[in-house]
């Protein structure tokens, strides 16, 4: 027993008593040792009792499509993977070059699956739309 009345190796977090994590030989766990090795002075946080559950989410659908025009098929098949047409259509006006920069950022930073050979056609189409 420790001086606070808890079993040897127990810790208290906000009044909740928890047994010190130890392996079968009574030594601190590797996680605790790593915690100290990286220079943290405090004890590691207590393990969580959180339980994961499966959640089903119904995403909203939109009947809105991009307006007809050369490139609309690309926008309707590629942009709507992540964006609603309304979100794109209400953007401030951009030049073709600005749209190319935005599209290429979405491809490189966010993994948009738009083929490189469709970037110019999509940028041209989006640049001619009126917000």
Q: How confident overall, as mean pLDDT?
A: 77
Question: What name is given to the CATH topology of the largest domain?
Answer: Cytochrome Bc1 Complex, Chain D, domain 2
Number of domains: 2
Number of helices: 5
Q: How far is the first residue's CA from the last residue's CA?
A: 72 Å
Based on the coordinates given, report the CATH architecture of the largest domain: Orthogonal Bundle
Structural class: mainly alpha
Topology:
Layout: E1 10-13, E2 16-19, H1 30-37, H2 72-78, H3 85-89, H4 96-109, H5 119-128
Protein model, in words:
There is one protein chain. With 131 residues, the chain is mostly helical. It folds into two domains: 9-44, no CATH class; 72-128, Cytochrome Bc1 Complex, Chain D, domain 2 (Orthogonal Bundle). 34% of the residues lie in helices and 6% in strands. The protein has five helices and two strands. It has helices at residues 30-37, 72-78, 85-89, 96-109, 119-128; strands spanning 10-13, 16-19. The protein has a two-stranded antiparallel ribbon. Helix 4 packs across helix 5 (119-128). The model is unreliable at 12-18 (pLDDT under 50).
What's the gist of this structure?
The protein is mainly alpha-helical and 131 residues long. It folds into two domains: 9-44, no CATH class; 72-128, Cytochrome Bc1 Complex, Chain D, domain 2 (Orthogonal Bundle), CATH 1.10.760.10.
Sum up the structure in keywords.
single chain, mainly alpha
């Amino acid at each position: 027993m420790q001086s606070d009345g808890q079993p040897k190796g127990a810790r208290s977090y906000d009044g909740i008593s928890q047994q010190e994590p130890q392996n079968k030989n009574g030594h601190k766990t590797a996680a605790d040792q790593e915690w100290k090795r990286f220079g943290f002075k405090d004890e590691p946080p207590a393990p969580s009792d959180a339980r994961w559950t499966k959640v089903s989410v119904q995403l909203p659908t939109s009947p809105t499509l991009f307006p007809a025009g050369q490139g609309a098929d690309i926008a309707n098949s590629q942009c709507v993977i992540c964006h609603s047409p309304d979100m794109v259509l209400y953007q401030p006006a951009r030049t073709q070059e600005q749209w190319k920069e935005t599209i290429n950022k979405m491809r490189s930073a966010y993994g948009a699956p738009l083929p490189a050979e469709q970037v110019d056609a999509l940028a041209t189409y989006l640049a001619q739309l009126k917000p």
